[in-house]
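Repro case for the chain-ordering regression, as requested:
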Amino acid sequence: MNHDALLREAIQLSMEKMLAGEGGPFGAVVARGGEIVGRGWNQVTSSLDPTAHAEIVAIREACRRLGSFSLEGCEIYSSCEPCPMCLAAIHWARLDRIHYAATRDDAAAAGFDDSRLYDQLVLPPAARELPMVQSLRDEALPAMDAWRAKADRVEY
Amino acid sequence: MNHDALLREAIQLSMEKMLAGEGGPFGAVVARGGEIVGRGWNQVTSSLDPTAHAEIVAIREACRRLGSFSLEGCEIYSSCEPCPMCLAAIHWARLDRIHYAATRDDAAAAGFDDSRLYDQLVLPPAARELPMVQSLRDEALPAMDAWRAKADRVEY
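-- result from build under test --
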């Protein structure tokens, strides 16, 4: 499948699964060499999981299918520009490239918080709407040190 | 349990589960009124899931246990400042407050990408390291319109 066909598959999922009551109007596919290895659609309200965005679901399925926590060599196709959670997940999954159709502003116009979230993330922690409180840093550092000292650690 | 005790529980998970080979040195708990409703630790390499960060795992468990996609009224305690993926997930989960111990710089010093990711997210899509390609926007908008027109949609 070429890029357009893969993006259309994501768009089709965004409509079909939303109409079926699975969640918001978002679909995504992960592909390697033009072959789909993971499909996802928003399932926040149907699976009672606020992290079950289309891209996250597609990434998790692709990783299960490929037996790896890295999707290097794969690309993701999303019906809409990924929200910050999904964009960061795409980084962590080491995907090569993102293809998307609608934008964060289109999502905002449909009632989703993506655009506001992007604005919040650039603020320093103390300036964000969501209160963030730091303490006990000294007690958390030994785990970081132990990680660096762990000879058999699997990096990711 | 008070705030310090809850944060210490997250810190203990960060050490214990990392030493057990589950993944990176990160732990988190979600609590409501001082009672733990979800526990999480990094399981990226053990579960082959790049999205299985401590906070995401804790949020998913709390939602399962409470039977809701909203964690309004709950707070999250993380052994380390959340990465952008987890921070956005915390927003989507409607958590009231974040308590954390180590910082993004501590994570960076231990070899994790969090800090670079925060830098990337503030850039416009075209300026990011990860290539982003937009197309077919017109084909994606009907699903957004259909969502707005859906009388029985469940908002989240």
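Ordering looks correct now. The radius of gyration of chain B is 18 Å.
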